[in-house]
Amino acid sequence: MRVTTKISQADRVYSELRDRLIRGRMPVGSRIVEQQLAAEFQTSRTPVREALRRLEGDGHLTRDPTGGLKPRVPSVRTMRELYDVRLALEELVVRRAAASGTQGSLEALEQEWRALAAEIRPPGAPSEGAAFVHRDEEFHQRLAEASGNEFAAGILGDLGDRIRVLRVHDFTSEDRIRATINEHLEILGAVLAGDADSAAGYMRSHIQRSAQVVRERVGEALARMFEEPSASSENGA
Is 167 found in the same domain as 56? Predict the structure, then answer.
């Protein structure tokens, strides 16, 4: 029972801190202090420490030369370069899938996303946010696998690991999730129809739209991160 409580507390701390980091609500240079967070969340330092390890592993936090944890500042240049690579790779994959993809796998993927479209929450409902990133990654990974190009699928998986910390910014509203589901179904419709040009065009628009949303929201988060830090964020060691 004690273990369950700790896991629940760690998840709670992790989710709240991740939301603050994604939205730029933790200033650049602010040091993360376990004791302060434990007091704020009314828990022990153990679940806080676990949450911070996860956030560091996800790429949301980085260590300074003294070993202290601080918010990682998103790199706009890195974001642009990663999306350029992703766009080229995704177009290659979707053309291959439309021309000679595994039909059964593609049909199963389409059925799953149609079911998801029917289950999605109404506009204005709280977004599942970061959790949807993994659903989205799975869609693109399975599409790559169905294309039959194993090497491309492997590279796409590695790219997903690198870009995930940025892509979380794409799914901070339920409207974006709904739009993404519709775009996925549009892509799959063209792939299953064997229309490689249309599939590539839909995929290109999908990736470019995602990149634009991420750029805007990363920019907003960066602006908040560079605002005058509050006194409370500078306390502790």
Answer: no
Query: Is the domain of 81 the same as that of 108?
Result: yes
Locus of tokens 């790779």: 89
Measured CA angle at 20 (ends 124, 180), to 5 deg: 40
pLDDT digits (tens, 9 = 90+) for 21-80: 877 788 877 889 999 999 999 999 999 999 999 999 888 899 988 889 998 887 778 888
Helices 174-192 and 76-100, axial angle in degrees (round to 10): 30
Query: Quick one: residue 63, left, alpha or beta (phi over 0 = left, psi -120 to 50 = alpha)?
Result: beta
Residue 183 lies in a domain: yes
**Taking a C-beta distance cutoff of 8 angstroms, is the pair 76, 35 a contact?**
no
Is residue 104 a part of any domain in this protein?
Answer: yes
pLDDT above 70 covers a percentage of the chain that reads: 88
